[in-house]
Amino acid sequence: MWLGRGVLSRPAILGASAEPMASSRGRIMLKGAGISGLNPKALLLYFSLFPQFIDPAGGWPVAAQTGLFGALHMAACTAVYLTVGVLARTVLRTRPSAARAVTRVSGAMMIVIGGFPLVERLAG
């Protein structure tokens, strides 16, 4: 709820930065891959979803099957994240009002989602 309040009270201003980027695009991509790879939800996916699709008696070793599923998952995530990023950048640059609407909606959603445990605790 605190994050949502912060987003609503100090929305980001879309525009070109006066400062040059400190890192190259490759370095930014590597940082994003590292952050995504360290996400605990990714580990949950590997430990809960992939094992049911791995056949220990199959023709491929378990490590190869796990690697293939991991590579397919990473390729799918990369395609989705790149598409969303490019489309979001295009829409938000051409329509500043859309950027403000996205900021307001995301801030409000953070407050609503943050309030669910509170409502649950009061109701239960």
TrEMBL record:
It comes from the Bacteria. It is a multi-pass membrane protein. The chain crosses the membrane at residues 28-47, 67-89, 101-119. The keyword RNA-binding does not apply. InterPro entries: LeuE-type. It is found in: Cell membrane. Its main location: membrane. It comes from Streptomyces graminofaciens. This is Lysine exporter protein. Keywords: Cell membrane, Membrane, Transmembrane, Transmembrane helix.
